[in-house]
Write a structure and sequence with these properties.
Elements: E1 3-12, E2 15-22, H1 32-42, H2 44-51, E3 62-66, E4 75-80, H3 90-102, E5 112-119, E6 122-130, E7 135-141, E8 146-156, E9 160-168, E10 172-177, H4 190-207, E11 221-227, E12 238-244, E13 248-249, H5 255-267, E14 277-280, E15 286-297, E16 300-309, E17 311-321
Parallel strand pairs: 2-3, 4-5, 10-11, 12-14
Antiparallel strand pairs: 1-2, 1-17, 3-4, 5-6, 6-7, 7-16, 8-9, 9-10, 11-12, 12-13, 14-15, 15-16
Length: 333
């Protein structure tokens, strides 16, 4: 008999969310980070099968539900993509909040249902609008977001000296205005943006040491967010493109990236506590973000950020892995 994995398919702002429903083996470990290591070290063929061609594609994104070890969590999940396993994903959390209520993992209560989701970076508290029949827009509060390096200058091949920030919103990102790379969002071909962002990611990963106070497994650069540079307070959306993992392009405004950008804006006094900013992706999708309170991540000043958006269903799937299928999943760019 062939091996089968069933999934629920969703998207948030155009970014896919493939949620494993059945067929994935139980993961071992006392903590969610232990389970993340088990998935990486012993079951990575399944990630490759679900994320890469011929069953996925270079920009697919997935979720593996696991048993929570946090006492307050309703559900717990691991995130996967074309290169490995991320520590936080805002667009997936927005989808998961709706999925958890719609699939009975959390009882729906009108007008708002709260869903506590354990992810590798910590506990995320989501709230989803609920009218008694279906769910809608969602919001979440994640782990403290902070600036790891401000106005750091690095030599990026092909672009020279580039000044940027590195900030954490459940994952570490380099934040760089497109103009600093000689580009303009909306005009530059996406291939040029990806190439520039990938060069920044590799450079920053080599030259800027990262530390996270909770666990060394969290201390890695996830990607680069290229912005329109409109960080100062504005009623208009600020646009960005996130390139993460192995040159994967986020179709959404990037939930954890919104957290990182709000942390950077707040550190410069560009947003007030409670002030809502809007963030637009290359699909035109918009997430909202606001800093609700100030706190610390270890000894580093940080903010608690609320991110909002809406997810939709695109279908269900059953993926088959036949025993005599010797074709390894592959990544095409």
């Amino acid at each position: 008999m062939p091996f089968e994995i069933t999934t629920t398919e969703m998207h948030t702002g155009g970014e896919p969310v493939r949620i494993v429903e059945s067929g994935y083996p139980p993961l071992r470990g006392a903590t969610i980070l232990d389970k993340r290591r088990d998935a990486r070290d012993h079951h990575d063929r399944l990630r490759r099968a679900l994320m890469l061609e011929p069953r996925g594609h270079a920009d697919m994104y997935g979720v593996i539900p696991v048993e929570p070890d946090h006492p307050e969590a309703d559900i717990a999940v691991l995130f996967m993509h074309n290169e490995g396993y991320s520590t936080m994903c805002g667009h997936a959390v927005l989808a998961l909040a709706r999925w958890a209520v719609d699939h009975g993992h959390v009882a729906g209560t009108a007008p708002v249902t709260e869903v506590a989701i354990q992810v590798p970076s910590g506990l995320v508290r989501a709230a989803v609008d609920f009218d008694g029949h279906r769910t809608g827009a969602a919001r979440f509060l994640s782990v403290p977001s902070f600036v790891a390096a401000a106005d750091v200058t690095v030599e990026v091949p092909g672009h020279g000296a580039v000044t940027l920030d590195v900030a954490y919103g459940g994952a570490f990102y380099a934040l760089v205005p497109a103009a600093a790379l000689g580009l303009a969002l909306g005009d530059a071909p996406i291939g040029d943006i990806v190439a520039a962002a990938w060069a920044v990611t590799r450079t920053v990963a080599e030259q800027v040491p990262l530390h996270h106070p909770d666990d060394p497994d969290l201390a890695f650069l996830y990607g680069t967010i290229v912005t329109d540079g409109r960080d100062a307070s504005s009623e208009q959306p600020t646009r960005n493109v996130c390139v993460f993992a192995d040159r994967q392009v986020d179709r959404s405004p990037t939930g954890s990236g919104v957290q990182a950008r709000i942390a950077a804006m707040r550190s410069r006094g560009q947003v007030e506590l409670g002030q809502v900013r809007r963030f637009e992706s290359l699909t035109g999708a918009v997430f909202t973000g606001r800093a609700l309170s100030e706190t610390f991540a270890g000894e580093v000043p940080a903010v608690v950020v609320e991110v909002g958006g809406t997810a939709h269903y695109t279908g269900t799937a059953t993926f088959t892995l036949e025993q005599d299928d010797g074709l390894e999943p592959f990544l095409v760019r």
